[in-house]
Design brief:
The complex is a heterotrimer of chains A (about 325), B (about 350) and C (about 260). Helices cover about 50% and strands about 15% of the residues of chain A. Chain A has about 325 residues and is α/β, with parallel strands linked by helices. In chain A, the strands form four sheets. Chain A has a five-stranded parallel sheet with strand order 5-4-3-6-7, sandwiched between helices. Chain A is elongated. With about 350 residues, chain B is mostly helical. Chain B is about 75% helix and about 0% strand. Chain B is built from 16 helices and two strands. In chain B, strand 1 and strand 2 form a beta hairpin. The longest helix of chain B has about 35 residues, at about 65-100. Chain C is α/β, with parallel strands linked by helices. Chain C contains nine helices and twelve strands. In chain C, helix 4 (about 110-125) packs across helix 5 and helix 5 (about 140-155) runs parallel beside helix 6. The longest helix of chain C is centred in the last third of the chain and has 18 residues, at about 170-185. Chain C is globular and about 55 Å long. Classes of the chains: A alpha/beta (about 325), B mainly alpha (about 350), C alpha/beta (about 260). The interface of B and C includes residues 7, 234, 237 and 350 of B.
Chain lengths: ~325, ~350, ~260
Amino acid sequence: MNKRFFSKNRLWMALLSLLALMILVAGCGDQASPADQAPAEEQQQQQSQQSESESQSSFPVTITDASGYEVVIEEEPQRIVSVIPSATETAFALGLGDRIVGVSDWDNYPEEVNEKEKIGGLEINTEKVLSLEPDLVLAHPTNGEAIGVLRELGLNVLVLDANNLEEVYALINTMAKATGSQDQAAALIEQMKQVRDEVVKAVSDVPQDGRKKVWVEVSAELYTAGKGTFIDELITLAGAENVAAEVEGWVQMSEEKVIEKNPDVILTTYGYYVPDAADKIKQREAWQVVSAVQNGHVYNIDSDSVTRPGPRLVNALKEMAQYIYPEQFER
Amino acid sequence: MDNLRKRPWIIKTMGWSAVLLSLLVVMAVWSVSTGSADISFLTVWKIIAGGIPLFTSWMDPSSWTDAEEVIVWQIRLPRIFLAAIVGMGLAVAGVAFQGVLRNPLADPYILGVSSGAAFGAALVILLGWQQGWFGAWTLPITAFASAMLTLLIVYRLALIRHRIEMDTILLAGVVVQSFVGAALSFILAISNEHMQQIVFWLMGSLALSKWEFGWVVAPLVVAGSLIIWFFTRELNIIALGEESAYHVGVEVDRIRIVLLVMASLITGAAVSVSGTIGFVGMIVPHIARFLVGSDHRILLPVSAFLGASLLIAADTLARSVMDPRELPIGVITAFLGAPFFAFLLRRRKNKYF
Amino acid sequence: MLDVKGVCKSYDGNRVLDDITFEVKRGECLGIIGPNGSGKSTLIRILSAMEKPDQGEIRIHQVPIEKFTAKELARTMAVLSQGGLQPYPVTVEEAVMMGRYPYQKWYRQESREDQRVVQKILQETGLSEMADRYLDELSGGERQRVAIARAMAQEPDIMLLDEPTTFLDIGYQISLLNRLKEWQRKNASTMVMVLHDLNLAIQYCDRILLMEKGKVCKWGSGHEVIDAAVLHRIYGVRPVIIEHPQLKVPQIILQSEPVSS
């Protein structure tokens, strides 16, 4: 074993480790940037969606959807398949429930979806979709490849997406335009704005320095919702401060950070599949110093209404606000 | 003293152990002082001293907050403790597996122990049994039990005419692992909202560690490691050839079984509380060989200390690199491990590791 | 010392050893010869208790071999198998020390006695100056010397060698066999070795066991065993047999062409 041979290799080792670390750090940076750009693009798209939906045209209509695709709808759709629960909810709210012939396995709201044909969950069963002979398929960007496949099969696929309340209104308008239900859309949006304003008004006299800190726990592994999520927007609208506001999107937070932030209220969204989720948080040994645990302000909220870009978001907003500032709603 | 001089391995072991024990302490000090919560180095150590009965009276508890005390004593320290135990266990198991199978690519998961544990854990999560018969312990206990069950199946498959051939047991491991892997994929496919939790478990993490986890796993890991250490002389002899080992009176078959079972036991215990953390069990023995040579008597304790230090370091990076986010620790171990392994591959001078 | 009585062994119905009976007296050196496939290696495996015979028994010091524990057997009998030692990075001294394993309790490290024996053997086998070198840096011949030193460190009554001279040049072959004979004489030990080279077998062994198709064909001194007709039958060659000018034992000269008669 030659000494020089060794030291040269040690140097290589050091360089390699350094490289690995750099890639790691660079990777983290890269991850953040698309998320930064996304809202801007979205907004542009949103504007185009909005401007088109404003013109109350009858069929045929041409809509540039969230996937950037020009969807041409010749006549008013009578058989609609929704492969994403948020679209189903919105469609039902627009009174299109009777026209829906197929929904995804994930669909659970409103109750009527249980009587609809299921077309698959993670993997969309294209054969099933085809057999339902839909004249419109409602989808979301997360449906991914399936969108292209369905289009190639000659189906009219409308991809809908929204990342904040304003975009949800636009989404509702786009769907309305595609289905000829503009009047219902106007009423629905009006109703949503009313609930929203009611909440905002209720919490309006919470002083800036008296805003409560809220920790939203999406899973027991401390996944949470950072900036750019509906949850973050709703917490802000409810006049509170999201503990995870400094991070983007859905992330796993370090436990000590949460404890250091000392949230006043803890909201969990996984209570529907983990029994006693709130109680378990209250029992965490290390969390006994957290003010929310000390004061018992730990609540389960409905996961679907806070994550699905649909009409129920405002209900979730109200529910959250009532948990965070019960005294503001008692009056 | 004269007797000692003639046994250089004891001196070498003690010397390296002292060096690596210091490394372990340095890692632990760095780790406990690092984190997303902003607590100064001095405060951390005041809090630690405040928690040790002898020093309590000298410390002024009003100089830190309750939250800070909880962060140090109930979040950082148990996590470091568990990282050390798991790292030590995986490294020791890696040495044992590589030595017994005489295969430098062997790692603690080679006989399917980890996939067995993962299957058990996934099943518990899928069925929502986290608060089952054993309370918070349901998941670790089930993971451990299914790991041992997997080992039993592999062992039973490889047992032909009352003998276990090493090639056969490796193949049996592969077969069982792919079967259990398929079952795991099936669970994932039907897991819906539980998928994230299962994936989280599969990637391995030391987040949310509790003192109790460490205290339960430590005796298993330490006792198993000691037993393996008693057989390192035999491992050296086996390394020179199985047949020749038999001829100097080593009961090769029996010792191999004892070592495989011990190493799997340790692995099962580690995996049941931390998930499947990759690379440590394979890499650490190689780093140790690079430092101290191939004598298992030295290699084993050195790997144990090194494994503990490495996992503490990896976990500290996992929770601080993208602060306040947590990264899966497996990402860190693979990022550090793969380049290092590439380096070792280039350096290797013969086919015997 | 070593009694073999009626040993039979079959694999999948093929009889590999058939009623093998012989004995080796204390201080004697027995050479086992025979063509490939005559059952020599199987016999060695059974003699070293790696395998059990289907029938018959083997006794060492009148005690059936299966009564020995692994360590007891290793203290009584050292075996040098064909595999030799793998080039694993341990030092020569450590490798020889492994021969003391059967004398060590599981919790005890090597004793002074172990140290003394190892140093003595390193000296006797001329390995002292390479005691700190690693096995993986040695040549095949050097590793074979280490293997023999390790077997000697077991201080056995019987040494069993399976073709110890394979792959060695003639210089190594002779020095190795001389060293073994020297060791045997000094310790009054017993040796059993399988050899391919008939001439070496005749020169170094007191008695020869010639095997043919799993049976003992001949068992006796070199003069008794070496017979041109028998060798022709077994090996298919017609050897010329002459007498060694100094040792006065028969030696075999091979011919490239069969002698036309």
